[in-house]
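Review form for a predicted model. The reviewer records the input and the model, then writes brief findings.
Reviewer: anonymous (R2)
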Amino acid sequence: MPKSTIGRPDTVVVAGGAGFLGSHLCEALLMAGHRVLCVDNFLTGTKANVEAFASHRRFRLIAGDICQPFDPGEPVDRVYNLACAASPPHYQADPVHTMRTCVVGTLNLLELTERNGARFLQASTSEVYGDPEIHPQTESYTGHVNCTGPRACYDEGKRAAEAMCFDYLRAGRADIRVARIFNTYGPRMHPRDGRIVSNLIVQALTGRPLTIYGDGSQTRSFCFVSDLVEGLMRLMEVDPAPDGPVNLGNPGEFTVIDLASMVLEMTGSRSPIVFRPLPEDDPKRRRPDIGLATELLGWRPAVPLRKGLAATIHHFAREAVLEEGATVPPSARKRRRPVADDAAQTQASAMG
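Model under review:
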């Protein structure tokens, strides 16, 4: 079975490593014994996300934008490209830079990979499926995307990056893997990143109305961050490389109204729910088919939604929301054992 860790210590570049997902990946790679070069321009990532391990002797933080040619000044073995704002308010704030990051930034990292004879993993997205017309979405589905709409800078940027990655693979210029990542949540999410999980939790903890766009019947699938990181690491190390993208996400499907109800229950909040018009091109259903990931990687998510939400609520109550001076319900303040530890044990027993 493919392993989720590299067989020997390697030097690993994580572009976007100070972001929500990137910081968890950096931490997991350090725990696995590797040297980590974290590259970030701090547009959406923060130094606070990597503060806990910033002084580690095998960790190096590099301030930089991958839209500029990049060379860390030392040989590298693995390159993870997680660089790009991933929430609509962030990637729509500067759509031209978003597109440049997806295309020019990916090209710069592919050139770095080729020069070093390294292995490359591109973090793509379920957004390449747009507002899908088939459910669940398999990797062979070509999507239903508005290529000129307000989300196109991200959707089309990621599609272009995928195309470039597989051109490099077909030309024999680099060892490539592409992960199509579905909704991911967990500690270190930005409290104002505009994503549904962080929005609802912060609103509940601060006593503000929970905002739902549309009627709440639209669905999403939510993958806890430790599960997603495990999938990324397994995909990077599987041999031979898949000849196409691989979906990574949790196939459990929940309506947005069900998620809001769960958040209200778990926080003890009495906040009302308010409804707003659905934004343009917002998908009505989103659920991954992870059959390929299970077959190739021996991977399935291990953390149930309620358990992951408990850890995320605890994080926001302890770290992010309290900075706003909010009154947080005592039930949300209660210290819990970190879910990541439980998830690691569950995953180890489930996946061998």
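Findings: The first helix runs from residue 20 to 31.
Further findings: The two ends are 9 Å apart (CA to CA).
Recommendation: see findings above.
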